[in-house]
């Protein structure tokens, strides 16, 4: 991981810490009434692109065994959240250090501007999403948009 990607990862961690997450092993977690949200960062093996992985553990089903996002009942990348998917510039492009043209052709972006844009995404979308997180919120707002095989097998999303 390059120095600049490591710095980006640190900045992202700080954003999650500001909205109520805390460091646990190699990932960040936040506990809610009926879910635990787990966040980790994954660098692409092909470039300097950084992925933000989200895992949701349903506490009514089992005690949380301190597992990474990919072992949780639900897992997705942060840019799969519909509000994030439609943000401009796209969140995934903001996390791609090699993409200097995220605002359009011939408009290079400094690292500071990239951090400013990431801050806007956190302020406008992510802080709201993570402040409302619950089993009912996921069920009512996102059930028809995402397919969660592990969650559906638990019958938590049945009416």
> What is the distance, rounded to the nearest whole angstrom, between the alpha carbons of the first and last residues?
45 Å
Radius of gyration: 16 Å
* Beta-strand residue fraction: 15-25%
Helix content: 25-40%
Helical segment count: 6
Total strands: 5
Task: Identify the quaternary structure here.
Answer: single chain
Flag low-confidence runs. Answer: none
The helix/strand class is: alpha+beta
Gross morphology is globular
Mean pLDDT: 83
Widest sheet, order of strands: 1-2-3-4-5
Task: Tell me the series of helices and strands, N- to C-terminal.
Answer: HEEEEEHHHHH
Biggest sheet, open or closed, and with what strands and sense?
Answer: 5 strands, antiparallel
Description:
The protein has 159 residues and is of the alpha+beta class. The chain has one domain. The protein contains 6 helices and 5 strands. The chain has helices spanning 3-18, 82-85, 91-94, 111-131, 135-142, 149-153; strands at 22-24, 27-31, 35-43, 50-58, 74-77. β3 and β4 form a beta hairpin. The radius of gyration is 16 Å and the shape is globular. The model has no long low-confidence stretch (mean pLDDT 83).
Which SSEs are present, and which pair or pack?
Blueprint: H1 3-18, E1 22-24, E2 27-31, E3 35-43, E4 50-58, E5 74-77, H2 82-85, H3 91-94, H4 111-131, H5 135-142, H6 149-153
Antiparallel strand pairs: 1-2, 2-3, 3-4, 4-5
